[in-house]
Amino acid sequence: MVESVVLYEKKENVALLTFNRPGALNALNTEVNLKLIELLLQADNDAEIKVVVLTGAGSKSFVAGADIKEMLEMNALQAREHGLRAKRVTDTLWNLGKPVIAAINGFCMGGGLEYAMACDLRTAAETAKFGLPEINLGIMPGSAGTQRLPRLIGMTKAKEYCFTGGTFDAKQALEFGLINYVYPAEALLAETLALAGKIATKSASSLKLIKAAMNRGTETDMETAALFEIDCFGLCFSTKEQKEGMKKFVEKSK
Predict the structure, then answer these.
(1) Active-site residue numbers?
(2) Domains of the chain and CATH, by start
(3) Residues 200, 178: contact at Cβ < 8 Å?
(4) Rounded to whole angstroms, how far apart are CA atoms 148 and 143?
(5) Are residues 11 and 43 in contact, defined by beta-carbon separation less than 8 angstroms?
(6) Which percentage of the chain shows pLDDT scores above 70?
(7) Which secondary-structure segment (H or E) carries 6?
(8) Predicted TM-score of the model (pTM)
(9) What letter would DSSP give residue 4?
(10) Pairing of strands 167-169, 14-19
């Protein structure tokens, strides 16, 4: 039986999705993209799942980038269609109604970094390497890399790495604010699942609304974003979690 190119494992209230092409350093292709979207939506539709963790099979790579063999003979129109398919993945990650954590266990290059940046939180092994090296192939990032990287690490450093195709390590990624935590490689997944488990104890509806409000804020002006936050805040008061949470707080205060 041939294993899926993306694996799905349910760990209590956490869905663990694993890129599973270790022989190709988990490079992205059409099959991977379609399967990833399918499994992300499966997790989103499972009421028991509250957090998603995304990682790579093997010890070398989260995702080393796109599968160049698949792209080699593309013309301009085909390349644009390829970019639109990848955008479906980043849009799904960004808009998923649950927090997504990328556990970056090695190479995180090109499309791999673009997918990781569309996640909500990022952890990394000490051995992880990051970059958008597309310019070295005579192309450029095509899955919002030129848009998300400057928002996360600042325009000046983002342009440097996009212009040079250079790489940076996990320590630098932490200093840039690109990732939340760095762990020894052997501890990465356990620590990331522990973080996911902590988040999973919180209100599912609040997590969804907080994510929506914060993401909207990066895409609009302060006034519009603040009003959207107020709408989300109001919606919290229609949930069972709000009724129970506030009741418990008041009772403890007596």
Answers:
(1) 114, 134
(2) 6-200 (3.90.226.10), 204-253 (1.10.12.10)
(3) no
(4) 9
(5) no
(6) 100
(7) strand 6-11
(8) 0.95
(9) P
(10) unpaired
